[in-house]
């Protein structure tokens, strides 16, 4: 299905905005990027998008398989992997081989990876790095609304909101083309309120900035709900007709009077009242959360509290209003719908649901009883590697946990302890550098597929050219390994070099199977076709039939719950997992910066994207410790340390440090972060841990 033309309309390889772009290959073979007027980015790109094609012919690109660090043939690499998998599973059982995926994989790859784990490897142990990104918002959306779609309305609604509350997001840096919606919203006279411990570029542009103590967003949400109730600002008819659980939620909120919440969060009472009143007075109001609110050991409850606030005001399902979360990774939405999560099957089906297992098994041609049950979540899976009873081998696709996982030094040692580590990548990432086998795979401009953006809009990624000689695709790798392991879609053995009929390397064929597998599920793609996506500028799921339109706006008539009502769930604030004390007296929070993306394995290789590790601290703290701007500093937690230059700024709280998580080596911020997990989503508490800082002396 490769395009023959030397110019294709496609989408950026980075964040979930999935900006439209055009790629052109010159007669000299150089690839040029042009912005495209697509509904999400409206002709805009950020500097990461403009420079994305530089990776295609980068001198550090992998061009041959590596076996124990040395060039090898594909046959040698495949033989080594298959022998290792068989040896491990014969000795320790099927679950001793694990799979780790990524939120940047196309829908076709995410779907095939889940199938590969459960049919070819027969292992329960598959999860992905999206567990570190969207899992708390996903879990909260599922239990409140019965569905998890990041934005249940088109992005265009945001610019039309009279009041916009944005919690824990710095979109001016993380997805700059999105920021134009915020600019339009302000220019229309809308009120814009940003919640963030840092005065980020997004916060500084807002009408009002609330700067809470890290880890107190849940208390803040409860305080806002208290004010809404106390001042009679709720929507009683909506609550009676469209929700359940309101009485318990209202009683819990009664304990979070404004003065108490000011003590818990540091946000002044006047700002809390102004926020609650602005939301209630608006004809159209939108509440958005992102990683700052969600990457906590209470992230699900925090998002639930903001959903409760939105429901109390009658926002979800009302045109131009509602609650949504901002998906981070490029296919963070689609990547969690099609089976690479430990507890899910395609279509967002639960893996322990007998009906779901039967449906998917019929598509795969296997016995439902042969599909393994739920496995370990991402951090728990990584932490179990090499341990007694844990996996002894792992295959990694589209992820770099050596940099991105919390408590990263421990996870690095766990990866090194494996009998077999296989990594598919196009650069020698920090994780690939310690692997036994590295397989070079195609980049985004060299293969077709689909992505699902933060609105739930299914998009087409188109290939400009074929991969260079000697480079495979992730789909081809999985199909070949399935064949060599003797697995077909119906569980029968294959002989010799015959390719498994159950695992196609062609993305179009995989998507057609995905449509059947998701039919009738929560995330129903049955009516989505590549042809429709091309013709309609993307198709919003759910779309159960080819003759039906997609669903850009959810909840207008009912919620996809058994009784059609949203479920309000009472939650209580609780402290962060690791409080500050005399030894570690400061909070550390982590995040992204403008020029870099995720673990930096791609963006750190582009010369036009400057940057390096740093630590932000407040001038009062810097003066007390004798630290000047630019001085090397050491930050220590109970788990490790990092060193980086100091940035002395007035835009951060005096009790808080900030470090970007894109960097490896001594500047790796995740050497510091902890492994406390949300009890529901299993999201690690990336956004706050206790640290101390000191100058690095000669």
Layout of secondary structure:
Layout: E1 7-11, E2 20-25, E3 31-35, H1 47-50, E4 66-67, E5 70-71, H2 74-92, E6 97-101, H3 107-120, E7 126-128, H4 135-145, H5 156-160, E8 163-167, H6 171-174, H7 179-187, E9 191-195, H8 201-204, E10 208-210, H9 217-230, H10 236-242, E11 243-244, H11 246-253, H12 258-265, H13 269-281, E12 285-289, H14 291-294, H15 299-312, E13 322-325, E14 344-345, E15 349-350, H16 354-364, H17 378-384, E16 393-397, H18 401-404, H19 408-416, E17 420-425, E18 437-440, E19 449-452, E20 457-461, H20 474-484, H21 507-518, H22 530-536, E21 539-540, E22 566-567, E23 586-591, E24 615-617, H23 619-625, E25 632-636, E26 641-648, E27 656-660, E28 689-695
Parallel strand pairs: 6-7, 6-16, 8-9, 8-12, 9-10, 11-22, 12-13, 16-17, 17-18, 23-27, 24-26
Antiparallel strand pairs: 1-2, 2-3, 4-5, 4-18, 14-15, 19-20, 20-21, 23-28, 25-26, 25-28
């Amino acid at each position: 299905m490769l395009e023959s033309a030397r110019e294709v309309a496609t989408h950026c390889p980075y964040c979930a905005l999935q900006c439209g772009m055009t790629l052109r290959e010159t007669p000299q073979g150089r690839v040029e990027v042009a912005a495209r007027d697509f509904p999400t980015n409206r002709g805009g790109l950020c500097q990461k998008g403009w420079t994305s094609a530089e990776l295609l012919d980068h001198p550090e690109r992998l061009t041959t398989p590596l076996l124990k660090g040395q060039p090898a043939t594909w046959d040698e690499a495949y033989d080594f992997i298959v022998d290792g998998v068989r040896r491990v599973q014969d000795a320790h059982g099927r679950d001793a081989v694990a799979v780790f995926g990524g939120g940047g994989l196309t829908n076709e790859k995410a779907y095939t990876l889940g199938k590969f784990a459960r049919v070819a490897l027969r292992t329960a142990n598959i999860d992905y790095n999206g567990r570190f990104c969207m899992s708390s918002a996903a879990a909260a959306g599922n239990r409140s609304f019965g569905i998890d779609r990041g934005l249940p309305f088109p992005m265009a609604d945001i610019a039309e909101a009279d009041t916009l509350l944005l919690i824990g997001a710095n979109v001016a840096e993380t997805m700059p083309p999105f920021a134009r919606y915020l600019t339009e919203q302000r220019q229309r006279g809308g009120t814009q309120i940003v919640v963030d411990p840092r005065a980020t570029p997004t916060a500084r542009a807002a009408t009002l900035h609330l700067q809470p103590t890290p880890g107190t967003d849940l208390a803040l949400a409860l305080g806002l709900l208290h004010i809404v109730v106390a001042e009679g600002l709720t929507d009683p008819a909506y609550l009676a007709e469209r929700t359940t659980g309101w009485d318990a939620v209202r009683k819990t909120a009664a304990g979070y009077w404004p003065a108490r919440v000011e003590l818990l969060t540091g946000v002044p009472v006047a700002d809390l009242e102004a926020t609650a009143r602005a939301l209630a007075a608006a004809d159209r109001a939108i509440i958005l959360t992102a990683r700052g609110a969600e990457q906590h050991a209470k992230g699900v409850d925090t998002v639930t509290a903001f959903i409760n606030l939105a429901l109390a005001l009658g926002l979800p399902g009302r045109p131009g209003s509602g609650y949504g979360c901002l998906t981070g990774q490029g296919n963070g939405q689609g990547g969690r719908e099609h089976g690479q999560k430990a507890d899910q099957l395609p279509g967002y089906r639960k893996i322990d649901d007998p009906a779901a297992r039967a449906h998917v098994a019929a598509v795969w041609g296997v016995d439902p009883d042969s599909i393994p049950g739920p496995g370990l979540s991402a951090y728990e899976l990584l932490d179990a590697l090499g341990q007694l009873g844990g996996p002894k081998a792992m295959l990694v696709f589209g992820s770099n946990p050596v940099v991105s996982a919390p408590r990263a030094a421990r996870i690095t040692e766990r990866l090194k302890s494996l009998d077999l580590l296989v990594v598919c990548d196009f650069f020698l990432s920090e994780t690939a550098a310690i692997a036994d086998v590295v397989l070079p795979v195609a980049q985004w401009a060299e293969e077709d597929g689909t992505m699902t953006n933060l609105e739930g809009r299914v998009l087409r990624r188109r290939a400009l050219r074929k991969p260079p000689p000697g480079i495979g695709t992730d789909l081809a790798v999985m199909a070949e390994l399935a064949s060599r392991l003797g697995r077909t879609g119906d569980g029968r053995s294959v002989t010799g070099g015959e390719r498994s009929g159950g695992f196609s390397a062609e993305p179009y064929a995989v998507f057609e199977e995905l449509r059947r597998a998701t039919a009738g599920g929560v995330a129903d793609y049955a009516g989505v076709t590549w042809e429709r996506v091309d013709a309609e500028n993307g198709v919003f799921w759910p779309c159960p039939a080819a003759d039906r339109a997609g669903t850009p706006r959810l909840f207008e008539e009912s919620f996809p719950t058994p009784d059609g009502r949203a479920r309000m769930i009472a939650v209580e604030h609780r402290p962060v997992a690791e409080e500050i004390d005399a030894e570690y007296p400061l909070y550390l929070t982590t995040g992204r910066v403008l020029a870099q993306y995720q673990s930096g394995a791609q963006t750190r290789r582009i010369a036009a994207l400057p940057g390096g590790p740093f630590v932000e601290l407040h001038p009062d703290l810097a003066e007390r410790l004798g630290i000047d701007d630019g001085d090397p500093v050491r930050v220590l937690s109970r788990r490790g340390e990092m060193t980086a230059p100091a940035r002395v700024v007035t835009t951060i709280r005096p009790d808080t440090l900030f470090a970007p998580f894109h960097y490896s080596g001594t500047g790796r911020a995740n050497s510091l972060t902890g492994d406390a997990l949300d009890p529901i989503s299993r999201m690690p508490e990336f956004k706050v841990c206790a640290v101390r800082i000191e100058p690095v002396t000669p």
